[in-house]
Amino acid sequence: MILVVITLSPADETAFHVKLADAKGSQANARLIFSDSNKNVVVRVADRDLTTIPYDQIDKFSYDYTKKHRVTQGAIVMVASLGAGAVVMMTKSKSHWLYIDFHEENAPKSIVLRMDKNDYKNIFDAVKAHTGKEVELLGDAGKAKKEKEKDKNEKEDK
């Protein structure tokens, strides 16, 4: 019996489906690509490289999430069922955002990407593995992490 082992190293290209947010608030389907062979991060929209950021020009990665009530979806469901629509309106959806701050010829720039709820932790791992940078937690995400650490420390002290 022959056993073949294939290992993936960080040198391989890693890509994720994301949404690119613009200043008007609309979002376009995009791909976030970490390329170690080229030492850069690429944001690709519709088979076109929108932005290519060399690793050494990246200042930081930041993460935040937003919560909002599903009012629009609830109103649509309410047409079919009043009770079900009200329940949907009471639930909240969470959006996960990745901010990439970088510089290009000494000019600061930033890109905002919306990550899928199933991918955002994998993207954090890819950021660390490919660029060596940690993702900074902002707003509620940072507060939640600090509270967890505080609770953990209090339990260890007891």
Mean pLDDT: 75
CATH fold topology: PH-domain like
The overall number of domains is 1
Elements, N to C (H/E): EEEEEHHEEHEH
- Please state the overall shape, judged from the principal axes of the Cα atoms: globular
Helix-strand category: alpha+beta
Number of strands: 8
Low-confidence stretches: 4-8, 69-79, 84-89
CATH second-level architecture: Roll
Explain how this protein is built.
This protein has 158 residues and is α+β, with helices and mostly antiparallel strands. The chain has a single domain (14-157), classed as Pleckstrin-homology domain (PH domain)/Phosphotyrosine-binding domain (PTB) (PH-domain like, Roll), CATH 2.30.29.30. It is built from 4 helices and 8 strands, in the order E-E-E-E-E-H-H-E-E-H-E-H. An 8-stranded mixed β-sheet has the order 4-3-2-1-7-6-5-8. Strand 2 (27-35) and strand 3 form a beta hairpin. Helix 1 (71-80) packs antiparallel against helix 2 (82-90). Residues 4-8, 69-79 and 84-89 have low confidence and may be disordered.
In short:
The protein is of the alpha+beta class. The protein is 32% helix and 42% strand.
Write the layout of secondary structure elements.
Layout: E1 14-21, E2 27-35, E3 40-45, E4 48-54, E5 58-69, H1 71-80, H2 82-90, E6 92-104, E7 107-115, H3 120-131, E8 135-137, H4 139-157
Parallel strand pairs: 5-8
Antiparallel strand pairs: 1-2, 1-7, 2-3, 3-4, 5-6, 6-7
Defining traits:
158 residues; alpha+beta; PH-domain like; eight-stranded mixed sheet; 4 helices; 42% strand
